[in-house]
Amino acid sequence: TKRDAFVVVIRDAESFARWAAEDGAALQWLEIHGLLGDPEVWRSAARIHCEIPLDVVVGDPAEEYAHLYRLVDVRAVRPIRVTIPVKPGFLKAFRLAASLQLPVRLLPGQPAAEVHDELLEAVEFSLRDPMVEAPVEYFHSALVSMQTGDPGSLWSALEEDPAVYLRLDESGNPERTSPAPGVKPADYVRDHVASVAAAGQCRDCPWLAFCGGYFKQPDPSYSCDGVLRVFEALHQATEEMRQDLSALEQQTEKPGKGEQAL
Questions:
Q1: What predicted TM-score, i.e. pTM, was given to this entire model?
Q2: Which residues pair with 56 in a beta bridge?
Q3: pLDDT (tens digit, 9 = 90+) per residue, 21-63?
Q4: What b/e readout covers 234-249, taking b as 16+ CB neighbours within 10 angstroms?
Q5: Crossing angle, helix 225-253 and helix 139-148, to 10 degrees?
Q6: For residue 1, what pLDDT band results from cuts at 50, 70 and 90?
Q7: Contact 169, 159 (CB under 8 A)
Q8: Which helix (H) or strand (E) holds 45?
Q9: Is the pLDDT of residue 11 over 50?
Q10: Nearest to 174 by CA among 28, 7, 52, 56
Q11: pLDDT tens-digit readout, 132-155
């Protein structure tokens, strides 16, 4: 029988060596944890040409960020992305990954108060700094949602919807079936949105359609005040881009010097 698409979560060098050259049609990517500090893993990876992408999770961004240089040679032989948990000091890892032209997924979880200012700096950096050429999630998907009016999904942007992304361990067993025991993966996001949408901050939140209550799990009492500042900064950037585009279109429509307006 044909296997559904899946992601393999790798946590040791031996498992990485076994899966590194795997090229099955159903394998979406390898998610690598705890190996960024092992130089031999990345020397070996740089010698294996393969189309299956790698997603390298930086466990402690403030301490491990310098190890990102080890991924530069790997990028030449296969697609690679860096996932950075939003923890104190994550901005150092984010900036370095961007300078290396590596795609980034910022995994916010329920960000602590001490990283809210860093998150706002990350928004500004991703929008303004010319070093940022590769997409930054979740900022990219949020901007697209705000620009197009299509709500999209933060759960999908962060690849955390259990109905869509099946994660297996290195032995091929489910890494996790659902964020909530006893809940079917296909129902989790829908049921979670229903549980938070009618009360608290989610009830009147303008970003609920995109967010889907993501920041209200696992703790539904989590305050989204800092998160809302990030969404507001992204929305302000969207409005600025819209105004700039409108001004450019108006300038283009004006007749040039010496031309006669019809």
A1: 0.88
A2: 32, 82
A3: 888 889 999 999 999 999 999 999 999 999 999 999 999 999 9
A4: beebbeeeeeeeeeee
A5: 50
A6: very low
A7: no
A8: helix 39-45
A9: yes
A10: 7
A11: 988 899 999 999 999 999 989 999
Bridge-based pairing of strands 27-33 and 6-10 is parallel
Under a CB-based contact definition with an 8 Å cutoff, are residues 137 and 158 in contact? Answer: yes
Please name the residue that has the structure tokens 């697209």.
144
Nearest alpha carbon to residue 138 among 111, 178, 177, 172 = 111
Q: How far apart are alpha carbons 92 and 89 in whole angstroms?
A: 6
Spatial distance between the Cα atoms of 256 and 108, rounded to a whole number of angstroms:
49
Name the amino acid, one letter, at 222. Answer: Y
**Cβ contacts of 3-9, under 8 Å, gap ≥ 24:** 4/166, 5/166, 6/166, 6/167, 6/168, 7/31, 7/55, 7/159, 7/165, 7/166, 7/167, 7/168, 8/167, 8/168, 8/169, 8/170, 8/172, 9/33, 9/167, 9/168, 9/169, 9/170, 9/175
The Cα–Cα gap between 87 and 59 comes to 9
How far is it, in rounded angstroms, from Cα 115 to Cα 118? 5
